[in-house]
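ok, trying the design again with the full structure, not the truncated one.
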């Protein structure tokens, strides 16, 4: 399917220990040369992503902060898709000694050991915020904002239906955007909960798995399902493999 777009998570998927190797970059370049589109979907803040990866130019869009920020590398345009965290929320977290605390333009993140404290602060202040687990971390975003909502906005701007999207990830926070894609894959190092909900479990881990997926896309093995075009983007399918 020549109009298929590859939508990939960064940490633990495209990147191995935070870095993307030359062979993986070359695979993405081959996909671009075949007139395919690329979207990066990450929980990282954009400034942090730029620090570890200097090839954002390969992507048509970058969904950062777990769906709260949309970046267009061609033109350097940033678009906030949600409101920044309330100052009183940050004040209460610091008062509860929640740390280390990472604060982006929208996202707030900390160690998962603080999950209960974060949830308690949200409840006490009656905020429309939602904690989202991501392996050893917990991320907090406005309710209803996730990788699926960010990816949906990116695809709308590109004029590409979600049914043409091929998604790949490894962690809990990837499930939402993988469910919104016409075809979903998990790298070999993905969590069991992710592997049980995708169309394809790749044979290789991290970046090697993405290279495998790129090869299969170029070979024509991957066929997104157009029947998923109208599916709720935030729905998580059950038991798909």
């Amino acid at each position: 399917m020549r109009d298929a777009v590859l939508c990939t998570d960064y940490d633990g998927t495209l990147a191995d220990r935070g870095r993307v190797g030359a062979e993986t970059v070359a695979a993405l370049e081959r996909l671009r040369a075949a007139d395919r589109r690329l979207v990066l979907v990450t929980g990282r803040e954009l400034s942090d992503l730029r620090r570890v990866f200097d090839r954002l130019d390969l992507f048509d869009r970058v969904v950062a902060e777990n769906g709260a920020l949309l970046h267009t590398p061609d033109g350097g345009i940033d678009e906030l898709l949600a409101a920044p965290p309330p100052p009183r929320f940050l004040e209460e977290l610091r008062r509860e000694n929640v740390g280390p605390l990472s604060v982006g333009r929208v996202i707030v993140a900390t160690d998962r050991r603080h999950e209960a404290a974060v949830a308690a602060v949200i409840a006490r202040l009656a905020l429309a915020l939602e904690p989202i687990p991501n392996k050893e971390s917990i991320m907090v975003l406005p309710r209803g904002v996730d990788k699926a909502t960010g990816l949906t906005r990116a695809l709308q701007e590109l004029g590409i239906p979600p049914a043409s999207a091929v998604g790949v990830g490894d962690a809990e926070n990837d499930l939402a955007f993988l469910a919104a894609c016409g075809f979903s894959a998990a790298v070999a190092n993905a969590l069991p909960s992710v592997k049980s909900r995708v169309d394809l479990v790749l044979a290789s881990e991290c970046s090697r798995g993405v290279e495998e997926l790129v090869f299969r896309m170029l070979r024509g093995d991957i066929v997104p399902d157009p029947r998923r075009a109208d599916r709720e983007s935030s729905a998580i399918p059950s038991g798909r493999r």
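Keeping the full-length input from now on. Helices lie at 22-33, 46-52, 87-95, 115-125, 147-158, 175-179, 192-195, 206-219.
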